[in-house]
Amino acid sequence: MIRPVQDTIDAYWSQRAPSYDDYQQRAERRELDTEVWGRIWSSALPPAPSDVLDVGTGSGHVACLLARLGHRTTGIDLAPAMLDRAREHAAALESPPRILSGDAVRPDFPAGSFDAITGRYVMWTLREPLVAVASWIRLLRPGGVVAMADSTWFPQGLGDLYDDAARRALPVAEATSIDRTADVLREGGLVDVEVTPLHEVLELDRRLGVAPGHEVQLQYLVTGRRP
Questions:
Q1: Cα–chain-centroid distance for residue 39?
Q2: Sign of CA dihedral 5, 13, 91, 43
Q3: Nearest to 123 by CA among 63, 164, 173
Q4: For the segment 142-153, what is each residue's pLDDT rounded down to a tens digit?
Q5: Tens digit of pLDDT for each residue in 152-199?
Q6: Do residues 172 and 184 touch, judged by C-beta distance below 8 A?
Q7: Would you give the DSSP letter of residue 19?
Q8: Whether 154 contacts 148, CB under 8 Å
């Protein structure tokens, strides 16, 4: 079941890659996003330079930003077209992140490889989130941090997004509260789990708009620490 479900998710995001990335790169808010999200990630992560894994990196927005902040960053994803976009953006940087094909649920790296693991808009579309958190804990050094930015995007249901099997395999996708994401991090074994509302991002969205088909809503940073 795992492979067909992930194939469905990867196919969807590969198809979405050009329009999704073009929207991320809009000139009118690109620098503002960099400034705001730079503060958000810096507040959650260890001081640079740290070794950071960005799971579900998509078009590389977070991985490239963290590299610009001075972190030794690796971004992984399984959607081929998203990886193509991420590699294009990484190649333009003086100190680029590594962009690799890899599964956010079971990243294939040695234990204790990273000081932090990040993800933006990943938790909602993550199969087996408890397995994922356990994998991330294995990859973290003692005291390492997990930082996930997300929201409750589909509290009324996913509708026709993905197929039936994929929808059933995503336990956080239709959550009505961000507390569900925080609970997953706790149940997976992280401690000191905190939820921080991202009001600066909300204000940007109110001023400059959001992607077509989306509504302006509050996003959150959910963090936890390896014991």
A1: 16
A2: negative
A3: 173
A4: 999 999 999 999
A5: 999 999 998 999 999 999 999 999 999 999 999 999 999 999 999 999
A6: yes
A7: H
A8: no
* 183-189, long-range: CB < 8 A, 24+ apart: 184/123, 184/129, 184/130, 184/133, 185/133, 185/146, 185/148, 185/222, 185/224, 186/224, 187/130, 187/133, 188/129, 188/130, 188/132, 188/133, 188/134, 188/136, 188/137, 189/133, 189/134, 189/137, 189/226, 189/227
Distance from C-alpha of 67 to C-alpha of 50, rounded to nearest angstrom: 10
Give the Cα separation of 207 and 216 in Å (integer). 10
In Å, how far from its chain's centre is CA 151? Answer: 11
Structure tokens, 126: 């993550």
C-beta of residue 36 within 8 angstroms of C-beta of residue 65: no
What Å distances lie between residue 39 and 65, 147, 168, CA to CA? 11, 13, 35
| 3 state SS of 18 | helix
Q: Distance between CA 95 and CA 71 in Å, rounded?
A: 9
Q: Which residue has the tokens 């401690």?
A: 191
